[in-house]
Amino acid sequence: MRNRIVLIVIFFLAVGIAGAFFIFRPRVSSTGNSPVAAHTSVQSLLKEAQAMEQKGDLVAIKAAYTKLINDFPGHKDVNAWQKRLDEVNLKIILSPLIVTGVSQSYDVQPLDSLVKIAKQFTTTVELIKRSNNLTSDRITPGQKLKIWTAKFSVFVDKSQNILVLKSNDEIVKIYNVATGTSNSTPVGNFKITTKLVNPTWYKAGAVVPADSPENILGTRWLGFDIASYGIHGTTDPGSIGKQATAGCVRMHNAEVEELYSLLPVGTEVIIVD
């Protein structure tokens, strides 16, 4: 599975999606092709990553793991490196750290609200609060806020049952998902038009409330601009990784909640076979 995901990452690079913020381009290691040289280079990069971990330097940690994946995509530990890189990417987004080109500092103006600021920068109130350690919606003029300005998008590959979260068209995190039985999830370019917390499930002939164990939608709903389709949570985590839904994209509840906090209405979703 991971080798196939690496191929998908390479595909993104081939069509010009990759860039400087998250670099995944596989290449021959600069240390040479011998197993000894490769092992030495891997160990050196791992030591560098561990040193940066102790310092808490998220940007440097990201750079080290990105280079490991970039230079050694076939290594036996690439799964673990990718998982750690996913974690670091999200920590950068959700922390107060400002990274040039993808986030900025904003001075709160009189009459500002979190809703107004989120709309101005096409982001979410939840992301502003989390990345600034805010425990309420209260803000004051002159207060400095970290704002994530890079545009999020979503890519779903039905053949692999994966969802790729991107920012400025560069990979942030890869999630395992469930898609439609008999290839029923629609293919195309869509937009997220509705966002619901603890959604009610309107199935044929019945209305299933959010607190019902029969409600299959889980804790979040991200609806598309095509009726009855979207990304949602689940009451059946064992179905993740399979073609098991009526056509929607299904995620673990904790992961769809994570996605919900990041993606504003209008986010592009691309689904392919």
How would the blueprint of this fold be written?
Blueprint: H1 2-14, H2 35-55, H3 58-71, H4 78-94, E1 103-107, H5 114-121, H6 125-131, E2 144-148, E3 152-157, E4 162-167, E5 170-176, E6 179-180, E7 188-197, E8 201-203, E9 206-208, E10 220-224, E11 230-232, E12 243-245, E13 249-250, H7 253-262, E14 268-272
Parallel strand pairs: 3-14, 6-12, 11-13
Antiparallel strand pairs: 1-2, 3-4, 4-5, 7-10, 7-14, 8-9, 10-11
Helix pairs in contact: 2-3, 3-4
Describe this structure in words.
The protein is α+β, with helices and mostly antiparallel strands. The protein has three domains: 93 residues, no CATH class; 46 residues, Roll (Membrane-bound Lytic Murein Transglycosylase D, Chain A); 119 residues, Beta Barrel (L,D-transpeptidase catalytic domain-like). Helices cover 33% and strands 24% of the residues. The protein is built from seven helices and 14 strands. The strands form four sheets. Strands 5-4-3-14-7-10-11-13 form an eight-stranded mixed sheet. It has a two-stranded antiparallel sheet with strand order 1-2. A hairpin with a 2-residue loop joins β4 and β5. α2 runs antiparallel to α3 and α3 packs antiparallel against α4. The chain is flat and about 65 Å long. The two termini are 16 Å apart. The relative contact order is 0.13.
